[in-house]
Design a protein that fits this description.
With 458 residues, this protein is of the alpha/beta class. It contains 19 helices and eleven strands. Strands 6, 7, 8, 9 and 11 form a five-stranded mixed β-sheet that branches.
Length: 458
């Protein structure tokens, strides 16, 4: 299963409050769409939060929570909300991610829009809609409902753009997620025991473990990179060992102010090249498909697999207690930082007919109670994650790792979010680095060209 394409600083959270204080006010009817960027939203004191006082309302909702556990959770939450507020009816349209993405672009350009809409938070989607003034600024709602207290800074930054759509990760809030995802290190506990090794607590220990596995004739790190994007999930955590988190955030969110050609990034690319050409990733990782690689790992081919949290349940079904998961060791900042994100956030179109009711519903489906229901249905809640972790198994490891990264460390952006073309640029470049077709310095230049061209236009 491919990662879904939806997928800190104190100043970033502070900016939510600042924007709330000076956000342009509007009535609580539909927000104002436009083409000059930044669909307006109401100030906190203009918002009606008493759902029962809103009268009879039918909320139209578009989502892509179509898989079993996802659908079960959202259906239960809808029913519960309607039971508590019988004056509200939820008219739900669920569809695949691809269909939702196609319909969203068409709908937001007109007036016939849903009230609640899941929006991919990448630049090509949410960023573009923000720039066009097609989404409601939720900053006032965040103040009214206390969302900045409920959600960690690392999480909220994934849904923040400046009102003109230029800066990602700062400015106004445009959506709220229910679930989380994180890239970390799966390890085969039985193989570690055979090697006489312990789970690494530092990057030096991890590098030593890779060499120990090589010397013992084991595959250190299983990777299937035929599709190119899986290498980004390996490089992201590795990059954090060498590069300060804020620099990675700047690069990954496509904001000006960083350089792919820095010495630290060159060190990270050099280590990836060493792993690729030295056999740490296998004989031909670029010729192996992603959905072939992880099943082979479950059958004993590989000591480690660096990948996303979504793989855990399927791999545990084969490996049982031998499968474990950990966040990467602390990186350049001395704290845990790794690639991760959230499920598709729920947004409110600028021309929604019932924005206050929509915000109340979004508040409900992202509440502490909602997190419990999501966990009960097998999803990984974005909040209270460690508290709601299972008692045992790989999901306990995953939940606790996500909680530690998102609340105490830094949840780094997926690097392919940086520019509209960066998924292709980075995927191809890292594949060449792993295969030895391009030197790290030249790879850094290729990445910098794409990133630099995009940020200079902003």
């Amino acid at each position: 299963m491919r990662r879904r394409t939806f997928l800190g600083s104190t100043a970033a959270l502070g900016s939510i409050g600042l924007v709330a204080a000076c956000a342009p006010g509007s009535d609580t009817g539909g927000g104002s769409g436009g083409t000059d960027g930044g669909g307006s939203g109401p100030a906190a004191d203009e918002i009606e939060t008493d759902v029962d006082a809103m009268g009879e309302v039918t909320l139209r909702m578009w989502d892509q929570e179509v898989r079993g556990a996802q659908n079960d959770a959202i259906e239960a939450l809808i029913q519960s909300f309607q039971d508590e507020h019988p004056n509200i009816t939820i008219d739900r349209l669920s569809q695949s991610f691809d269909d939702l993405q196609q319909q969203t672009g068409l709908a937001l350009s007109g007036n016939d829009v849903p009230d609640v809409l899941q929006v991919n938070n990448a630049r090509g989607d949410m960023g573009t809609f923000v720039e066009a003034g097609q989404l409601t600024d939720l900053t006032g709602y965040a103040e009214a409902y206390g969302w900045t207290d409920r959600f960690s800074e690392s999480v909220l930054r994934k849904m923040m753009y400046s009102p003109d759509g230029v800066t990602f990760g700062e400015g106004s809030l445009w959506g709220l997620p229910q679930t989380g995802e994180v890239c970390g290190i799966y390890y085969n506990a039985a193989k570690l025991e055979e090697l006489g090794a312990e789970p690494p607590t530092t990057w030096d220990e991890l590098f030593s473990l890779v060499q120990t596995a090589l010397d013992a004739g084991e595959l250190p790190i299983k990777l299937g990179n035929l599709e190119q994007w899986p290498a980004l999930h390996v490089f992201g955590p590795l990059q954090a060992q060498f590069v300060p988190s804020e620099e990675i955030v700047t690069l990954g969110m496509g904001n000006a102010g960083a350089e792919w050609t820095s010495d630290a990034n060159l060190e990270a690319l050099t280590k990836l090249a060493e792993w690729g050409t030295g056999g740490a990733l296998g004989d031909s990782p670029n010729g192996l498909a992603y959905d072939t690689a992880w099943p082979e790992f479950t059958e004993g081919d590989g000591v480690l697999l660096i990948g996303g949290s979504w793989l855990g349940p399927d791999m545990e079904g084969v490996m049982g207690e031998d499968l474990r998961f950990m966040a990467p060791p602390p990186g350049a900042d001395g704290k845990v930082a790794t690639t991760g994100g959230t499920g598709l956030p729920f947004s409110i179109p600028a021309n929604a007919a019932n924005p206050d009711a929509a915000a109340a519903f979004i508040d409900y489906i992202t509440s502490d109670t909602a997190m419990e229901l999501i966990a009960e249905n097998g999803g990984m809640p974005v909040n209270r994650t460690a508290e709601l972790a299972p008692d045992s198994g790989v999901n306990k490891d995953i939940y606790e790792a996500f909680d530690a990264v998102s609340t105490e460390g830094v949840l780094l952006p997926y690097l392919d979010y940086a520019t509209p073309s960066f998924a292709d640029t980075a995927g191809s470049t890292l594949q060449q680095v792993i295969g030895g077709q391009v030197e790290p310095a030249a790879a850094a230049e290729q990445l910098q060209t794409d990133y630099g061209d995009f940020t200079s236009e902003g």
